[in-house]
Specification:
Alpha/beta knot; 2 domains
């Protein structure tokens, strides 16, 4: 059965690259790719070359049932190989931190653990750019990648905001903490309301996916957890809305700090 993440990312987005040779040449050319899908029965020299190039370029390779590729290819001759393209080249976590240092600013990072809806990720990218975030970190697995829909929903912000895609979000948080960032996760069960927490850079805000929220391991990696005050019947907000509130709380606190510290 087709994976829901790949189906939602592919259909209507025109981001499928089918065929062994097409996938291999895209890898060799350094084209931005989210992942490569191969059938479990795929073998031969071209497949070996795809695996070698994917490893060299740090592109995730997943072995799947042939029916899944048939579904994604929608009639195109895939030869047991499909690449899912990315709307933008990715960067490393270190490059995001270096971008902040280059501006002589304390790092302000958004980490999105498992958002599946491309419209939500695009909206978060747009808001993060507006709030002055230095970069976004997203996972390689079980989450939407940088699809054309994400790019469109970001209203151009994706062109300006660095995005790192990591295999393990928990390890990425450890790296941010090693770089002296304060890591704060959003959790509806947290005891502290977001405006009662000091949210000044260097800081990384961590959001979970739709429905599931933060995973246990990611929650445990956070230095602190905050919640949004919910006064109605629902217990949480849409992730892009919640993210916007938290991002602009950082902006508000930065403004308040600069106002207080400004000379009379």
């Amino acid at each position: 059965m087709p994976d829901s993440h790949d189906r939602s990312e592919a259909e209507g987005d025109q981001d499928i690259l089918p065929g062994r040779r097409a996938v291999l040449e895209a890898l060799r050319a350094g084209r931005p790719l989210r992942k490569v899908l191969l059938t479990r029965a795929a073998h031969g020299g071209t497949i070996r070359a795809i695996l070698q190039e994917a490893k060299q370029h740090d592109i995730f390779v997943q072995f799947v049932d042939e029916r899944r590729l048939d579904h994604l290819a929608q009639g195109a001759h895939h030869q047991g190989a499909i690449a899912l393209t990315s709307a933008k080249s990715l960067v490393s976590v270190d490059e995001i931190l270096a971008s902040a240092r280059h501006r002589n600013q304390a790092p302000f990072v958004l980490v999105v653990e498992g958002v599946e809806d491309p419209a939500n990720l695009g909206a978060l990218i747009r808001t993060a750019d507006g709030a002055g975030v230095h970069g976004i970190i997203i996972p390689r697995h079980r989450a939407v990648g940088l699809t054309p829909t994400v790019a469109r929903t970001s209203a151009g912000a994706l062109e300006h905001l660095p995005v790192a895609q990591v295999t393990n979000i928990s390890r990425a948080l450890d790296a941010l903490k090693d770089a002296r960032l304060w890591v704060v996760g959003a959790d509806p069960a947290a005891s502290t309301v977001h405006y009662d927490m000091r949210l000044l850079p260097p800081v990384a805000l961590v959001l979970g996916g739709e429905g599931r929220g933060l995973s246990r391991l990611v929650r445990e990696r956070c230095d602190a957890l905050v919640r949004l005050p919910m006064r109605g019947r629902l217990s949480s907000l849409n992730v892009s809305v919640a993210g916007g509130i938290l991002l602009y709380e950082v902006v508000r606190q930065l403004h308040t700090q600069s106002t207080v510290e400004a000379p009379p």
